[in-house]
Batch of 4 targets.
Target 1
Amino acid sequence: MVANKFLHLKYLDISLADDDVDETAFGAYDYLSLVSFLDASPVLDTFILSVSYCSYYEDI
Amino acid sequence: MQDIWCHIHSLMPLRDSARSPCVSSNFLCSWRCRPKLTFTEETLGLKQNAYRKSDRTKKFTSRVDHILKNRSGVGVKSLKIAIDDHLNVDTCHFNSWLQNFITPGIEEVILFPPSTKNKPDYNFPCSLLFDGRGNSIRYLYLNDCAFRPLVGFNCLRSLTKLRLNHVLVTGEELECLISRSFGLEQLELCSCMEIICLKIPFWLDRLSSLTVSSCDKLQVIESRAPNLSTIELYIDPVQLLLGESSRVKNLDLEFIREVNCVSYAINKLPSIVPHLEILTLHSGREVYS
């Protein structure tokens, strides 16, 4: 059980950003799966999620 | 009073410091004992002038030679020589500068040696560090060269920070290089394409920071350094062996070619870095198979 958890993790910063114009990079990504990080980190006090996307998507 | 002048000189740009003896002969001594020497096209006054490329090499070489003729390398604490790719400085010439400026007492050496077509063909002569000349170096930053220390290498005893960028060095050679640097605190490796296995021995107990980026052949990082607390990895996944007593608290991770950095982190990292407190992930693509 212990091996599956970040028992001391206080700060988590995840940035999801594709360098190229690639609509498949996170197209099928289930962002809610990131909840598993929160479940695994009982003492987390800061969670930063940065998602950047291309202007390509703005028209959609 | 002389000490104050020397200190002021050490804070001045190289060109101003070199010109100051024109104002007063008293400044000549301050210039000659200037502890920090930075030789780049800019500090040698070649940037803003419209020299042709072939002339730039001649000017660069003659100006460094001239400085060397007017002062010995004794007293140099910090040396930086950056030869831009378009300059065609002869490596024997470059080595002669190092031979003169790397003297006992030097603390900082930053080198961008001459290179051709971006191929690191310059071979840094380890002998430059022999006879106690490397033992005062605290910060060594080498770029674009081959560095081949042999077993028993013991010439960098005061080293606290080592940066290697585009350096041809094997894992075994790197181990020889750092294994007697007991005060090493920071190790940074970038584009060192010959390293397959990076081993850090347990007696490097001051090592706190390890950064590895774009080392494409790397497969294993094995660290026994007991106080290693910060790791930054910008490489594809490797086998990370940090030992059960790992104190790594801060990890920054980004894959170069592979995908699923975030998935890797949640699945693998809890057992590899159990004491992690700060985790930063950069992912360019997450794909579930």
Target 2
Amino acid sequence: MRIRNSRLVVALATFALTLGLAACGDDTVGGGNSDDVTTAKAGRATGDLTISNWPGYIDPGPKGTVAEFEDKTGVSVNYIEDINSNDGFFGKLQPQLEQGEAGGRSLFVVADYMAKQMYDLGYLQEIERDDLPTVFENILPSLESPAFDPQRKFSVPWQGGMTGIWVDTSKAPEIRSVNDLFDPKYKGKVTMLDELRETPALVMLAEGVDPAEASADEWLKAIDKLKSAADSGQIRKFTGNEYTEDLTAGNIVAAIGWSGDASLIENENAEWRMPTEGCTQWMENMVIPVGAPNTPAAIEWMNFVYQPEVAADITGYVEYISPVQGVKDILEKEGSELADSEIVFPTEEFTRNCTGQNTPPELERVNEAWQNVLTG
Amino acid sequence: MSVAARSWASLRRNALPIYAGFAVAYMLIPIVVIAVFSFGDTPKDKLTFGLDDGFTLEYWRTIFSNTQLNEAFTTSLRLAALSTVISTAIGTLMAIALVRHKFVGRRAANLLIVIPMATPEVVIGAALLSMFIYYTFALGFTTLLIAHVMFSISFVVVVVRSRLIGFDRHLEEAAADLGATPLATFRTVTLPLLAPGVVAAALLAFALSIDDFVISNFNSGTTVTFPLYVYGVSLRGIPVQVNALATLLFVVAVICVALVLWQQRRAERLAAVRPEREPAAPIPAPPAQATT
Amino acid sequence: MTSLRQRLVPYWLLGPGLLWLVVFFVVPMYFMGELALRSGSLTTGFTFDWAWSNFPDSLSGHSEQVVRSFVYAGTATVLSLLIAYPLAYAIAFRAGRFKPLLLFAVIAPFFTTYLIRTIAWKTILSDDSPLVSVLQTLALIPEDGRVLATSGAVIAGLTYNFLPFMILPLYANLERLDLRLVEAAKDLYSSSRQAFLRVTLPLTMPGIVAGVLLTFIPAFGDYVNAQLLGGTGQAMVGNVIQSLYLNQRDYPEAAALSFLMMALILAVVVVYIRFAGTGAFMGDEDEETSR
């Protein structure tokens, strides 16, 4: 009987504690604080700089961009590649950002929509245009005034890319459209990205619906189509970056993937194709969060990477689309074959059917439906 | 008996060891794979797992060249070391209290120790995060340490307790009879005899900490531990040095254990003590009574 | 005889540990519970309004994954037990000089990170690997079948990763088995099989219980295996919770689901212990005196 009693006591005590403390708890937690936005202070760059970025987005090593920056400015850079998905990174950092902290980071790189989302929640600092002379001198005109940040107050483009279809030409050379991925003869040999703004959007494009104008129901319809394909086993997996592994290992014949991932796919038959109906284009942005400990160095970094020679080094390694003018010429002079690549320097014609990364209306409802497909 | 019958009989007799051999091989397969792939040659030194391009020692030579990897690795080692020391100390004391003393609340204490082992890591990690958020406690090395000690304590208690239970009290009584104070008895009799159990618990705590991924993922802030680093790069191509480091870690562990065993065997021979049971009996106590 | 000081000794010994556990386990659980009772979203803020509905809602929305987790973890546990028991027995009684070596081989996998081990399996089980070809030739899987991205792969991963948790308790228990009892049974004319079923098995039940629990529980909440080795349709509860916390930022629902998961597991534990019966897991008082 002693057993029962002591366990009961513990249980009751815990319950009472819960109720008691609940009464004293805060009523509302969260909600952001977009009211007072701070502006990042510029100045002489010194000290330490912590940058968070996606993996494979910079040329590493003692001759790379980071080392060059350190040599030139004397700033000691702590470059962490800990961003693997916009949502994941946001989820991880949100509690601290809410309190005005960024975990020691002064700069990180996220997608358009994520930058906007963070800005709206008051998690980012604004940057004075005058503090970024090199940036605005060299930025591609098409990127100067995007819809989500018309005056480029809080974001500076880093690298961009396109989402299309990677095809193993030795096994499925005829795949040219996202619709082809639903063909039963490729059952279980196809993967798609787990990003809401990419996969359903591409499916909608393939059905002739414009993702930029689509209603919530049209999004849900595309998500339903994906759900049936997942349930039937047509789609093998929803992936983040790891589709490159499946392509390398020969587990799949095609995947929805990103244009610049050639260096990660050890399969010489794999080729990135622009879907016939168009792709999604995206640009990632450098942003300065609240609580950034070293904003002068961060701003200096932004200016630094917009110098065409530096930008050319980065693009040469990373093989994504540079936001800086003059990079193509520099690469051409170096004799790099990237200069001719449509993927690294896409023409207007090439991307005529492409759309950006659109956020669906009724985001919560649509996102929930999408997450249910992912964890189905 | 005919040859066939004899061999069948011998097979049946040895079925168990043969099976054990296969089972152990099964456990070591991934380790072998990892080791093999640490010798793989690839362009741009980023690969997932592949050996097509040939054999090289390049990545072993440059094993410490990847600064982020090194930082993550040293962070993990530091974290594991601290976590092991703290949780082993605390856990051992708790085990002694629970086994040697009768007191009010003993059952409740037992319950409290067992429940964390029964809680999935996802839940522990998320719950800790909720609390740290609420108190706006900065996430980082400290929060990781707190979490690691927390989930290690239960395992340490269980291991040490199981060793304590088989403990011969008469030895301590003998020491007391010979005039030793309780503290001296503890120091010279109890602790040395308890040592294998404590060492086993410490090893387990160390392994748990260095291996932890889920809880660390929720509570690390910007601190990157080795598993977190691997997770980060696994989606984009693991630097081969990771395989090499993992293999190195394994080899070091093997060497340490071998040294300990060799030392024990030497001590036995020097003391000219012939244990009555099979020679291995006293030795395996360390990893043996791990979790009950 | 026992002075007050002596009576306080256990409390001093327990103090730091209990304090740590209370502050860093019990209190966070409270916070999680409190979070589960809130509603709202990240942009509007989470208001505390006794939203009990979060509990049934989170369960009904994800019942498929909960059931699946039970099935996967259960299968992995059973397989693990079948693999581990003979191995533990062999190590305890037939290993001789190799005992410490074998025991080390059992926990050795711990020293290479969980993730790397699982990724290694991903490579071993990839569609074009020799292993899969062998399985296809043996007709264990269809000609164009695969192992990765199926439930089989996830269960195999779970079994492998939690095997040490099954082996060690079994071994610890088996080591203390007095073989003379088995001999006695045989002297009384029982066959080897009977001796096993009636003497060995019951006596090792505490070890089996401990092993089963230590394997099933973490396997139930795991998400790494499903994420790396599974495809669409293999997501477990752990994946859902992770998605809710990090991707959807629906903290109340995530917290509610976590809580329910814990309750479910505790229920399973209580039922199982009552059925299989043992004090060993909970620290029976009699343990000390039985020596």
Target 3
Amino acid sequence: MRKTAYLLIALMLLSVGVFAAAPEKVEQAVVNLILFDGSLWKNTISPQEYKTFYMMANADNILVPTNTKVYFWPITQEYMADFYDLNEEIEGTMVVSRGNRVIARIEKEEYAFAYPNGYYTGSPQLVRGEEAHKASAKYKDEVNAYYQRVMEYQQALIDYQVALEKFWENPEAYRGRESEIPKEPKIPEYPTYYATEVQRGYIVNLEPGTYTIEIEGMPETKRTAIAFTPRRQGVGYDIRPEQQWTVPRPSNDRSETVYVYGKQTIYVTPYKGIEVNHFMYEKLKKLPSELSGRGGELVYKWMALEYLNGGTLEVYKDGELISTSDFKQWYVDQTAGAALGYNIIEFDPKVQGERPPSFEGFRVQLEGSGRYSFRLVDKDGNVVQESERLIRSIDSRSRFFAVILPIVPILIGGLIWVWRASLSATDTGTDKTSKLEVAKS
Amino acid sequence: MNRFRAVAIRAIAGRELRSTLFNMGIYVAIALGLIVASFMIYTYVTGIMEYGMAVMPSSKTETRYYSELPQSPEPMLVPLQWTVYIGAIYITLSASLSISRERDQGTLEVLFYGPVDSLSFVIAKFVEQLLSFGVVLLFYIAYFVVMSAISKFALGVGFLKMIILSLFLAGCMASFGMFLSSMTRKVKTSVILFLVFVITFLAVPMIHQFVMVQYTSTMKGAVSVARHVTSTLNFLVSWISPFAYLGRGTTAIILGSTSELIKSLFFSLIYTVVFLTASIVIFNRKGVRR
Amino acid sequence: MIKTHNLTKEFTTTVAVKDLELNVDNGEIYGFLGPNGAGKTTTIMMLLGLEKPTAGSIEVFGKPLDKNYFEIKRKVGVVSENQYFYGEMTAWEYLNFFGRLYEVDEREKKIKALLERVKLYHRRNEMLLGYSHGMKQKIAIARALLHDPDLLILDEPQNGLDPYGIRDIRDIIGEENAKGRTVLISSHILSEIEQLCTRVGILSKGRLVAEGPLDIVKTKVQPDTTLIVEIENLTDAIKDKLASEPYVKKMQVEENKLILSVDREGDYRAQVARIINENSGLVVGMQTKTYSLEEAFIKITESSLESLIKEGTA
């Protein structure tokens, strides 16, 4: 009992180190990295402990050397920067070298990110200099206009409520004058367009290779930058079977096969994808983490970037074209009544009204067993690279054979065993007995 | 290798193979492997029937949704991997009994009355183990070809690579088993030794993994020490355990890396030669007497 | 055929064989004898290359064993004391396997002939697991003969056999020797050794303490011939007369029997009978007694003779 108590106390004391102390912050020069991942820009830092960082080649990447306080966060096993505590941007000329050769000297410039289709729909654009100011100003103007519309709406709403009360006092009076019935004002829509504030940083766009970057005269900002490219680019698909449309399955790689059972209707939504080195890509997204990318040095993974719309999907069976499908919007129409059920129909704004489409994509109808395939063709009639997929219809009889086949080796072994057992000698007695048997034969 | 040794190897390996094929053991091992494969394939098919479809993803893919299906470029690859594991364990057990059983029952001495020396004997036993595994593999291949044809699950290049890898793995397993067998005089001792090693080879990586996920950023205590110890043990096991060579090869196949696959095959070969040589040396020292 | 020189085998705590100078000539049946633990099996194991000598050399067929291992082993057939078999094989499969091992020509024909010879052809497709000890011994003989060896080494081949089995083995050994095969046989059934062997070697505590033709080995232990004469009317005159004869070495009287040790050279029975008759005695019976091999064996191995008694074959 006493030993157990001592052991527990020892374990608790050991764990004190984790829970009692706040992480120690160290002031240092980091490089704030805003790196393009193929579709968006991701933010990470390069502290002194991680002086090699990875970025996409042939893309605009933003580097912002900063003095800040860095600490190690044990729970996620990564280094983090406390910009609230200290955030001093480092000024100077950034020197980019390859080997011993200086290939560029870059000054800080102004930039902003603009989202013409909205922040949450992705596809930001990096705008620089004067364009950055314009984008940021445009967003502010649109927001201001929106707030103005909100105020107008609120007034309109009050007016509407007053008019409605009056209507309800004598609705019969409005017979034949339906156009005078008060109509509810439309809620103003928040502007789709979004842009960030204008900021300053070093924008680098490098070919694949290894580089050294440094703010001139400041060795603590020296870093190694590895610019990499995707190994492949292609088309992936979100594939939904009709009976479980809420759980699409991704198919990124052309080598993947889609297996279906029986007569099936599936919906495929294509997206642009890239195949990148897993380690480098994970480090691009989160550099100063012990766990990110670990073990992935040899692994190549497909990353989905943005959805594609348009084009035509060609469907083949046993090598022959059986149908084509157009890119459409689809709506999941719940069936009326207490029982659960739905139909997937083509989206029609006139019918569905305010409701948005459930998803977009191509419909593929499969008529049972056979070897199917589909591929994407763009509006110019060209086959989109890496867009082919094979579809195979499985046979449920395989389950029966899965049960039966393992018995075969046992049967073979059993037969052999029985045969060999029949060769066992009987009790022979003395050799004299065998001589008698010879005499008899 | 002189002609007499070649004759001895052929004769002894032939006899051993015959004995193996006339025993139930190999068929039970094959059936066990097929049962595991069947269970997986049955699950795959049922899953597809219930869900309506499935994409067999590449392990190169970062899936964005939970998938109950294996991360493998070919649906038959993971079932094959498991059947190979089972077949390999059978070969290790069989090899670990091969020398000690003959010594225990006295037939080793009788064999050495003839034109047989330790080199030809050990090589013959090794060859027989490979041939036995070849028989096991034939059953597996036939099974997967039949199941592929019926289920329509594709067999691809990865399947072929796994078959080749499994032959090299069988070499590792057989040589390791024979190493154990050469050290013992009794069948019982061989079995115990086999179990001890297999359990160690499986347990060490698991313990290592458990210890590694413990947080140690500010703790330089017992866990840190344990990490060092288990890391060293795990490193040793990763080179001594024949199972580790299957793991290396399988990873290479799933990653689609030919260079890594060739590297793993090369290391498997070195492993086999080292343990086979050790078996011959130990066998010579122990002698053939009961 | 077999020649060893200073052959020695030392284990951690014992010296099993010491300075063994064994000579087995071509075409002979050599009896290799010794009490339990004398080192016979260890010697045989060294001759077969299954034990490495601590010192000394072994030549078989005039060639060093270590340099001509395979060549020599292919010409030696062995039946060991204990029979170990692959129980899951039939007799036919077993012999077929060894036939392949020795690359026997016309293998199936030879196996059939041997199985018929040992009277087990009708049991050829039964598993060895169920064979009796005697049957296994016969299969071992068949295995040893399958590849037409020039040398047969038999370690207790008749152990545990019934009289029929013993006789069958004896006949086979004799037949094979008649074909020119050299046989080295180790056995505790000394009566069989006496019937079969032309030469014997006796091992005691790891040393060869006697070797040579049977008669000569026995002679060295018992140099004189013993005459046992049963006499009616045995008188002192008869005793005195016989005692004074130069060829009588020793005389013992037991009631009406005289036990005389006479010179081994020469046959003195007629002279003894004449002396008895001349002195009014009547010879009722007379027999010559020589040492059996068993008696010689026991005497030799019990003694602390360190010198080697060796006789040439000529």
Target 4
Amino acid sequence: MKTSEIRALFSVVSRPEVVSLAGGMPAVTALPLDAVGSMIGDLVSGMGAQTLQYGSGQGDPRLRERICDVMALEGITDASPSEVVVTVGSQQALDLVTRVFIDPGDVVLAEGPSYVGALGVFQASQARVRHVAMDDDGLIPEALEEALIDCRANGDRVKFLYTVPNFHNPAGVTLSEPRREAIMALAEKYDLLVIEDNPYGLLGFEHEPMRALRARNNQRVIYLGSFSKTFSPGLRVGWVLAPLAVREKLVLATEAQVLCPPSLTQYAVARYLDTQPWREQIKLFTELYRERRDACLESLDAMMPPGTIWTKPEGGFYVWLKLPHGLDAKLMQPRAVNALVAYVPGIGFFADGNGREYMRLSYCYPQPDQIREGVRRLARVIEAELDLHSTFDRVDTGTFRAIRPDQESGRMVGPANSDTSEDGR
Amino acid sequence: MNETAPAPAATGAEPHALRAVILAGGLTFEREVSLSSGTQVWEELARVGLDAELRDADAGLLPGLAAAPADAVFIALHGATGEDGALRAVLDLAGVPYVGSPAAACRLAWDKPAAKSVVRSAGVATPDWVALPHSTFRELGAGAVLDLMVARLGLPLMVKPASGGSALGVQKVSRVEDLPAAMVSCFAYGDTVMVERYVEGLEVALSVIDLGSGPEALPAVEIAPESGVFDYTARYTPGLTEYHTPARLADDVAVRAAALAMEVHEVLGLADLSRTDAIITPDGEVHFLEVNVSPGLTETSMFPMAVEAAGYELGEVLARLLARRAGSTR
């Protein structure tokens, strides 16, 4: 099945009958919409001369100051607004960093699986992605070192490690504290640049935010942040925090791309951070996502057939599920569409064709009841697929008495099925 | 269609008073294609001055049609919703006229093995096949059944869902060891799989329309996919398939192909429009593969190409079909 076919199957997701565990859409209706609406209205009516005008390529200085306050929540206390470049979502930040660093053929190390939007950016820059294994504690340092040694031996130029350390998309896991230290030690040892992509870090359910990689090393880490999950993805405001020499290049690159990030949405974010209880709002989001995560994990526990395993996210949006042996999430998708449930097949999160037996489930958007119903439908789909495999998996094709057409008389004989006995033989 | 044609309704065409509803979308694998067909139909009708309403077949449909009755409905739904006859049966119940084949004929055409049986009974050539549900393989043993299939039908084989369009789930299997996996992925689309003898030849789409004076075969469209396989991607990605309209056929073969399409249209009881997919062997034999009661009408679809090649304008044809059905129920 090709990508276009997967896209076609996805088109039913817009119908309300389908429970979509596919999209990673934040629950924006949990925002105080009236307050945000009047705030944005005031920005236009009262400050239109600034908010509707071009702005600085690097981004609004006031917003960059507030971004430093946000990053301090994850232990980044030495960031200066001058090192911050505001971008159109952190997706643009990733694109800028990739453009600045990557030449065709360069190697990017990334978790396997990895964020599909990052893989697209790397592919567009003709980078070669080498996946590094992860487990329930995130990226495995030994696997990273092995990859670095291999690449060095092969003469491959590794430009950076791309990692989502918190509540990984799609794997749902978080890099443990000891591994954070180990990975930064490897970065020092192997002169490795780390791109830390952290859209979900403040959305933890179990504990305070973990200390960012950038908080441990301000020269080897370029940090990407976003307001898409903590405020609104529709405003498209993200940022990159980079050492000054890199920042210069990023500003030139962004000016070439978009001239400047949108003024109105930057002002909206800055005003939101200035005037609204944003920390409380993040807590509210977190509670809501925790409830949905619980609904998802409880239903998976109760309903999934044996042989299915999944990660237990402590924050963020995603569960990464591994199907029983031999099942293929992409090939199973039409059955899921028939059963009115959607997920994202795992193969999209690998650059090397792996991941067929995995799928990503998102619990962030549907209500808990819908999640339970979606998991129930998915369990039935998997059971039906297992039944099908039990029929066909043990077929020994070596014993087939295959007759080639050229061995036959060439005359068309009737159909072999009994419901067509009236055929014109 | 000319991409640089003037904007719809700017052609100076007389506005039609007809109230037409186009149904597109649906809850099927082919939703995306249907939305694309529906938009195309809407644009073509607008081009000839007919301002139609484009809507999905969902829970709002019947109340919507009751509140604002349509003179006629054009069904641009593909997949089960639009083609298995169920929606048409409901429109019949509601007394809503629609363009296209009646419910019972659709039910027959939708079931590929059943349609092949009827067509073969009428003397039309069609590749040998067998259609079986999963339960048969489970109960009798997949190895033994697949063994018989290969022994009887040979290789390569075409493995297809017994219903459904846009080539979704269709695979050509050349090696026996690939057959079990092909069956598994095909059964994901539905409970019955049709396995068909592969016939080598030229793939053609044979459209039939009836504007009131009886069915008329349009010029055959020859399909030459760049990859050699006319799959979903080759169908809907502009540039991946080369089409020749009319098909490069000897006159007598073209006549036989047209006759086959007319025969299929007639024996299955189809009405207004249909598209038969067929294979023409190097020695000029025409083999029926399947028929579509709701042919694709997207920018890369073959029915519009055939209409244009026949010298008609698509919008005018669609408007005439709607006008013909307006006010008449069945």
